[in-house]
Amino acid sequence: MNPLLTRLQPYPFERLRRLFADVTPNPALRPISLGIGEPKHAAPDFLKKALADALGTGLSSYPATAGEPALREACAAWVQRRYGVAVNPATQVLPVNGSREALFAFAQTVIDPNRPGATVVFPNPFYQIYEGAALLGGAEPFYVASDPARNFAAAWDSVPTEVWARTQLLYVCSPGNPAGAVMPLEEWRKLFELSDRHGFVIASDECYSEIYFRNEPPLGGLEAAQALGRADFRNLVSFTSLSKRSNVPGLRSGFVAGDAALIKPFLLYRTYHGGAMSPVVQAASIAAWGDEAHVVDNRRQYREKFAQVTPLLARVLDVALPDAAFYLWAGVPASFAGAVPGLSADEAFARELLAQYNVTVLPGSYLAREAGGVNPGAGRVRMALVAEPAECLEAAGRITQFLSNRA
């Protein structure tokens, strides 16, 4: 067996199952989960029709790893409309089976484990795929400190020069998971300058880009590169997905776009890896990338839901509206520290909430690693407001009652 597999840490939801193994949820209340970021809004009907219409012919042939030209063109057209950026659909766009598998596979393409000190850098808290991709690629992860004063944005200046010097790949996530911070242009400028100086590749995870609460949509990596005179997108690849944008996590469809010199070897890797997208999924994806009305409506639903839920929870938790994404990153009361021997405050909060009010939240410490003696997720919980508004409001009401009764 690959010995690197032993270095993988349990996934957050596996840890959550263990945490709850001996907890009996209140049977008088129906279960409500705010734990997993799985969109629950209805998928658009036109997309389902496109999927069904393609079944007649789409199952009778092997798909090309590069995808159909029509799909790459649809993706490129969306990038142009969304960011005002022109990408070549033949050389700078590649369909992928959702951003998760692509984020992992990309590291296997980029990392050279034979170079001394091979390092992959990413924010902390983070999406655990980044860590697993680094470890299985033969590199060492470096966890960047976060700044609570800036909505837990990565504190890039805290990374020592010697770490940047051995970095091969940098993962960024904007809007961020779990805190929803968006990277401004000056932050991109800093990272591009570091990339030019040290030669590392930037993988920009942008799967939450279409769910935002400000009037201005989040800045994308390709958009930032163009604004800073980097029209060739050197050493940059952006990752996006239909899962959150179109409420189809089961479709497993997204694409990457950016530096043609990186897309080419990534295509080679995926050809051997078997990363081709089903023609049926391609047909539905073309329809999805070509329509914005359903995205606007989806964003409206999230905005209305967050506008109702956030003020309720802010009465009892340290929480505020994020820049984007569909999570609330809430600090739990200090009274939960030490409440259960051996558990962090966020773990104790999650257990007690489930037992008394049958609401599931994810402990923040499960989304981060201890670095420099500090786990930046400790004492916080992530709540995914992905269900219908009534269910999210009911969950908020239960949490409010839970903490009010405990005070």
Helical stretch count?
A: 15
| Euclidean distance between termini CA atoms | 51 Å
Structural class: alpha/beta
**Domains (count):** 2
Instruction: Report the CATH C-level class of the largest domain.
Output: Alpha Beta
| Biggest beta sheet summary | 7 strands, mixed
Task: Break the fold down into its secondary structure elements and pairings.
Blueprint: H1 12-19, E1 32-33, H2 45-53, H3 55-58, H4 69-83, E2 93-96, H5 99-110, E3 119-123, H6 128-136, E4 140-144, E5 146-147, E6 153-154, H7 161-166, E7 167-173, H8 185-198, E8 201-205, H9 221-227, E9 236-241, H10 242-245, E10 254-258, H11 260-273, H12 279-289, H13 293-314, E11 327-331, H14 345-357, E12 359-360, E13 362-363, E14 380-384, H15 389-406
Parallel strand pairs: 1-12, 3-4, 3-7, 7-8, 8-9
Antiparallel strand pairs: 2-10, 5-6, 9-10, 11-14, 13-14
Helix pairs in contact: 2-12, 4-12, 5-6, 5-11, 8-9, 13-15
Structure notes:
With 407 residues, this protein is an alpha/beta fold. It has two domains: 3-42 and 294-406, Aspartate Aminotransferase, domain 1, CATH 3.90.1150.10; 45-291, 3-Layer(aba) Sandwich (Aspartate Aminotransferase, domain 2). The protein contains 15 helices and 14 strands. It has helices at 12-19, 45-53, 55-58, 69-83, 99-110, 128-136, 161-166, 185-198, 221-227, 242-245, 260-273, 279-289, 293-314, 345-357, 389-406; strands at 32-33, 93-96, 119-123, 140-144, 146-147, 153-154, 167-173, 201-205, 236-241, 254-258, 327-331, 359-360, 362-363, 380-384. It has a seven-stranded mixed beta sheet, with helices on both faces. Strands 11-14-13 form a three-stranded antiparallel beta sheet. The protein has a two-stranded parallel ribbon with strand order 1-12. α2 (45-53) runs antiparallel to α12. The radius of gyration is 21 Å and the shape is globular. The model has no long low-confidence stretch (mean pLDDT 96).
